[in-house]
Design goal:
By secondary structure, this protein is mainly α. It has one domain. 61% of the residues lie in helices and 9% in strands. Helix 1 runs antiparallel to helix 2.
């Protein structure tokens, strides 16, 4: 159990929090991935009889649905679906309050998680411009993206349990104590 102490002495602010366990964060990630995969499975299944030869459009629709649902939750509660189910949330590392939209949604969620997903989606979608000369260019870029995402995630094994996206956004993930 790691406790983060906040040095501010304002009486209406909390001065400590309990960091989420690594396992809680991992299971929250798995639950969020299951949500994304479910949307990515269900929407094409529903729309494929009506829309032909529009794989990229359907994939982009799935992308928009996932970021809309998760984004709404992150912005308003500091929790994704997985974090809510694991009883943890994202808070600003200084104020211990729900982070700003910029920090929780744009930096943590869009920049670190969803832009790599979107880039991979486009590269895997067979964009002729990207794959015309050499198909290994796209595969190499996807491998690089995956390596960067993995490397920033492995920072969770530091004592403060902060991944790269936590450090960049100035956030921590805390346990919700009843």
């Amino acid at each position: 159990m790691v406790i983060i102490e906040n040095n501010e002495t304002n009486s209406d602010k909390r001065n400590e929090t309990y960091l989420a366990e690594r396992s809680q964060r991992f299971y929250a990630f798995v639950l969020d991935a299951l949500f994304s995969f479910s949307v990515s499975f269900a929407i094409p299944l529903i729309l494929s009889p009506f829309i032909k030869d529009a794989d990229l459009i359907i994939a982009l629709l799935c992308f928009v649905i996932v970021i809309s649902v998760q984004g709404y939750l992150l912005i308003n509660t500091g929790q994704s679906i997985g974090k809510r189910l694991m009883n943890i949330r994202i808070v600003d590392s200084v104020s211990l309050k729900i982070p700003s939209i910029k920090n929780v949604f744009l930096i943590r969620y869009i920049l670190i998680w969803q832009i790599p997903n979107l880039m991979s989606l486009i590269l895997l979608g067979g964009s002729p411009e990207l794959n015309s000369n050499n198909s290994s260019n796209g595969e190499g870029l996807i491998s690089l993206i995956a390596f960067i995402v993995l490397a920033q995630t492995l920072l969770i094994f530091k004592n403060d349990r902060r991944c790269g996206h936590d450090i960049l956004s100035g956030t921590i993930v805390e346990k919700l104590i009843d």
